[in-house]
C-alpha cells in the first residue's frame, strides 16, 4: 500500500474519531456551576478543550490506521468473510 493511501486513510479516521470523541468529557455551565452569559444556550459547553480532543483523535486514528494497514497486508478480514448474501455455503469443503 502506498504511503499516500495510508495518509489518506489516517486523515479519514482522524476526522471520524474527532467527531465521535467531541461529546465525551464536556459539561455544561450548569453542571460546572458557572454563570451563563445572557442569550447563551443551556447546552453550551463550559469546559470544551479542542486540544484534548485532537490528541485523543490522533491516538485513536493511529490505532485504527495500524489495524487497517495490517489487515490489508495480512488479509485477516476480506470480502469472502463479510459477504452475507452469497449463495454458496462457506462451511462446505469443495
Describe the model.
This protein is an all-alpha fold and 94 residues long. It has one domain. The chain has helices at 3-21, 29-32, 50-74, 79-82. The protein starts with a helix and ends in a 12-residue tail after the last helix. The model has no long low-confidence stretch (mean pLDDT 90).
What coarse outline follows from CA principal-axis ratios?
Answer: elongated
Mean pLDDT: 90
- Extract low-pLDDT stretches: none
The main β sheet shows up as: none
- How much strand? under 5%
State the oligomer. Answer: single chain
- The succession of helices and strands, N to C, reads HHHH
- State the share of residues found in helices, binned by percent: 55-70%
Radius of gyration: 21 Å
End-to-end separation in angstroms reads 32 Å
Secondary-structure-derived class: mainly alpha
Number of strands: 0
The count of helical stretches stands at 4
Amino acid at each position: 500500500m502506498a504511503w499516500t493511501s495510508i495518509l489518506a486513510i489516517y486523515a479519514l479516521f482522524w476526522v471520524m474519531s474527532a467527531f465521535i470523541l467531541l461529546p465525551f468529557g464536556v459539561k455544561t455551565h450548569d453542571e460546572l456551576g458557572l454563570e451563563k452569559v445572557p442569550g447563551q444556550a443551556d447546552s453550551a459547553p463550559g469546559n470544551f478543550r479542542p486540544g484534548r480532543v485532537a490528541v485523543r483523535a490522533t491516538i485513536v486514528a493511529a490505532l485504527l490506521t495500524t489495524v487497517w494497514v495490517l489487515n490489508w497486508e495480512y488479509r485477516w478480514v476480506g470480502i469472502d468473510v463479510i459477504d452475507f448474501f452469497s449463495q454458496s455455503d462457506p462451511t462446505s469443503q469443495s
